[in-house]
Design brief:
The protein is an alpha/beta fold. It is built from 11 helices and 8 strands. The strands form 2 sheets. The chain has a 6-stranded mixed β-sheet with strand order 1-3-4-2-7-8.
């Protein structure tokens, strides 16, 4: 699904797009000011270039013509942006042509102003939405940041109370990660964290939520899941990670993860649930690591 590209594109691509969007907006505004001047003061305008299309002169689409992946290029948002821009300039050309013949009506001018405003609102919304995703997503791993976690866990808690369904929270931690940083270096350690996050994404459902809790710890939210199912899923994840080889061009390492698991309960608030999962994780570490422990 590409209709929601901030949720699919990676951070670097989003940053590239956001920078281009701001530049394109400035270029477009400069062109638009010239068009407004021509509409307001047609007698002052040099008409030597009347036959030229202002959309081609704008440069908006040229700025946004850089390479983006399919998550952006094929998205509804990106295509809508380009369509609105083209429609705006088509209307501008029609208004300018009527101005030459003194045939532009107030209603047509107001319609052009409204179209301009709608286009700007779309750009503003896309800008805010993309910036918000960048703030919410961890740059290294691409998963959600901890600053958005508690609000989303609360929403799930309220849904559980309302519907009577079950959901689980799990705390995942890389075993002996300090050794990796010490022996292989922090750059390799960052590669391990990013690759682990990818493995979490690949092995969980699209609607499960993954948060970087801090350092090498990740918190998982597993909606509509009971302890039995969650434990089976997390044990498959754990054994898969233990078999996986983390490597770059020069070195390779194998690691394990420990997991603490708990289930949403009517009598527990979010803070208590996180503490339960964390305590279960601590038990897994003390019991020898590379285990899934269910909170009691």
């Amino acid at each position: 699904m590409h209709n929601n590209f901030p949720g699919k594109a990676d951070n670097r691509e989003l940053e590239h797009f956001l920078e281009d969007l701001r530049h394109a907006s400035a270029v477009h505004l400069h062109c638009l000011m010239g068009i407004f001047f021509e509409l307001r003061f047609p007698e002052e305008t040099n008409r030597q270039n009347d036959d030229k299309n202002r959309s081609g002169q704008c440069g908006f689409e040229d700025v946004l013509g850089g390479y983006y992946g399919t998550a952006i290029r094929d998205s509804v948002s990106f295509k809508r942006l380009m369509t609105l821009h083209k429609a705006l300039h088509t209307m501008a050309e029609e208004c300018l042509e009527k101005t030459v013949h003194d045939a532009l009506t107030p209603a047509e001018y107001i319609a052009f102003l409204h179209t301009t405003q709608r286009f700007q609102h779309f750009i503003d919304a896309l800008n805010v939405r993309t910036t918000g995703i960048l703030i919410e997503v961890d740059e290294l791993t691409g998963v959600h940041m901890r600053n958005t976690m508690e609000a989303q866990l609360q929403v799930e808690w309220e849904r559980v109370q309302r519907t009577g369904t079950t959901s689980c929270i799990a705390m995942v931690d890389l075993d002996n990660f300090k050794r990796i940083n010490d022996e292989y270096g922090h750059i390799f350690g960052d590669l391990v964290l990013a690759e682990l996050a990818n493995k979490l994404v690949e092995n969980l459902r699209p609607y499960d939520r993954i948060y970087r809790y801090g350092g090498e710890e990740f918190l998982l939210l597993l909606p509509n899941t009971n302890l039995e199912v969650a434990q089976a899923v997390l044990n498959r994840l754990r054994t898969g990670i233990a078999r996986h080889e983390f490597r770059d061009k020069k070195q390779a390492a194998q690691l394990t993860i420990s997991i603490g698991l708990t289930q949403y309960a009517v009598e527990s608030d979010i803070s208590a649930l996180i503490k339960q999962a964390d305590a279960a994780l601590y038990q897994a570490k003390n019991a020898g690591r590379n285990l899934v422990v269910v909170a009691t």
